[in-house]
Amino acid sequence: MTKDWKQFLVSRGRKFTKKKLEAPKVQSPLLTNFHQWAGKKRLFEFNDPDEVSKVLGNDSWGVSKNLFANILASPMRTDMSKRIKLPRELLIQIKLEPIKNGTNEGKLVALRPQLEISKSGNNSYICNSLRFLQGKRASLGQLVPNSVHSSNTYTLNMNEILMDKRLFTEKHKQDLSECITTLLESLCERTDKENVPVTVEDWDVILTYDEKSNNDIELVKLKHLPSVPTVIILNLKLLDNDSIGRLINDRLRNHDIGVVLKFLKDERLIKLVYSLLNFSR
């Protein structure tokens, strides 16, 4: 090896000094001292609106009018059939309801699924699935609210509770369909009075009755519209109901893509339709 090469190898380490690494300056409270609060709930309070935009950005993300965001933000509840926790809006709420005298001998209350979530009274929850509830694994006895077993004020016997699986399957689907039909008819009356042009925005819900489409629930970006909005399409063709089809495609249709619904204005109807589609899949 020549002298020049030896000199190069000896001096190589002297010419290149190690660069001192520095941690980047982090402004977000979500990352600062993460190891101290990870796994613990924290409430961030901002007194200045500029602080909020600095952390979250100028975009509010539109979560208040986003169907999926509202469902996922609902309180967590335990699915009594599988013993797992899910957002409440993805489950069916169950309550004990009094039975009128003489209709069922020896039965005082009935275990019934609720169409909409209610905060009052004792309740339990089960997965929103017709296929599961029709199967052999679904046991209604485990759905009785725990308060019946643990409370000293209750004197109910399990034999006094009516547990009919049909209330959770065909009857529940029928009740959902009838409630949705009623709301659609009310929407007809409202739109006839308002008669206002509709603008499609991000996270609007588009109600359709499209027999050609194979999808019940779709998240679509409408590129043919100027603002290119992202919308949620709910297709009610699975009801196989001509009267609902005429309501959606003729009377209620307020845009070439279908019936445009605003979540903040039509929240009840949107959630019932979404619940029915999930239940029937």
From TrEMBL:
<keyword id="KW-0496">Mitochondrion</keyword>
<protein>
    <recommendedName>
        <fullName>Required for respiratory growth protein 8, mitochondrial</fullName>
    </recommendedName>
</protein>
<comment type="function">
    <text>Required for respiratory activity and maintenance and expression of the mitochondrial genome.</text>
</comment>
<dbReference type="Pfam" id="PF17068">
    <property type="entry name" value="RRG8"/>
</dbReference>
<dbReference type="InterPro" id="IPR031415">
    <property type="entry name" value="Rrg8"/>
</dbReference>
<dbReference type="GO" id="GO:0005739">
    <property type="term" value="C:mitochondrion"/>
</dbReference>
<comment type="similarity">
    <text>Belongs to the RRG8 family.</text>
</comment>
